[in-house]
Amino acid sequence: MADEHPWRDEERLREMYCGEMLTTYEIASEWGCCRGTIQTWLDKHEIPTRDRGKSPRPGEKDSVSCPDCDQDFDTEKGMKVHHGWKHDGDLDTEDESALNSWDHKCPDCEEEFSTERGLNIHHGRVHDGSLTTIEIECHYCGGREQRPKRQINNPDRVFCSRECHHKWKGDDTTKTSVECAECGGELERYKRRVEQYDRQFCGPSCRNSWYRSNIATGAEHPLYDRVEVECANCGAVEKRYPSQSGYENHFCSGDCYGEWASENLTGEDAHHYKGGEYGYGPGWTLSKKEAVRERDDRECQHCGRGEEEHLEEFGRRHAVHHITPARSFDDPQKRNAMNNLVTLCVERCHQDWEAMAPLRPDTRSNSAG
């Protein structure tokens, strides 16, 4: 059994791994198994394993240690790669003493770094800033100095010290006399506001007047490329875009359109004209309509509203509707037959049935069909 699974023999495994200093790959290759099997049985036998680079095999050169965390590596290249990723530093130097020199200190947290590159990487990741400096000019005294770019929020207003900033704020609370750009009136404005804006105004009226006369003129005027049209109802002149000037009639308001439509869109010119008046002929009598309402229990056959509620709501009794439009019949008896009439509310329900004609929903009374 031990020959089939030699890794189960603790003494043999310990001798090969600790005595002969073979790696798990070499043991697995000799015994014909995978490296994971060897590693698993090393753990089961509680055989201490070697960390990479800490226990070099006989004949190999000594390991290289990281100057920051003392971790050992087989090669100097491996140590440099580790240091660049782990400690944000570059160890590309021939002077070993330089590896332990920490001449670069973070200005925010005072953490030390061996290289400027490591400091810049740390500062960008941890403090969200750049150590790149630029020359600035104090907004108050005019002095110049180098300042980290990340500390400059407003390049147009930078101060060399808090003292200059406070002095500038003190001067900014004083007002100066200026003239309104439109009417010429004398105004009192803060110095900061005078420096910020090219012109000052008394108020919105002067500002709007100045902009209308100086900015919104000629081709820049909003109505520059519009054409004049005349209202078809009242004759008032309005300006419209050229694309809207091709309509036959123009109106200055909805009221004007309503007045014009009530006089001109009647009869055959009306939008809903369907052939003009059509007499219902013999058989269309008050007694016939009363008979239809009585047959339908004096209720709307669409919504079920009773006659009393209908009178209170609309001030009149239910309408009697022709299910199949009257103009569809030549025979008045078929047109006004009881099975072609139904009781409906005078407004919404009647309109719904008119829109569906000649289709019809089911009525509430079977006798209406």
TrEMBL record:
PROSITE patterns: ZINC_FINGER_C2H2_1, ZINC_FINGER_C2H2_2. One of its GO terms (molecular function) is endonuclease activity. It comes from the Archaea. Keywords: Endonuclease, Hydrolase, Nuclease. Residues 104-132 form the C2H2-type domain. Residues 47-63 have a biased composition (Basic and acidic residues). The keyword ATP-binding does not apply. Residues 47-67 are annotated as: Disordered. Transmembrane segments: none annotated. This is HNH endonuclease. It comes from Halosimplex pelagicum.
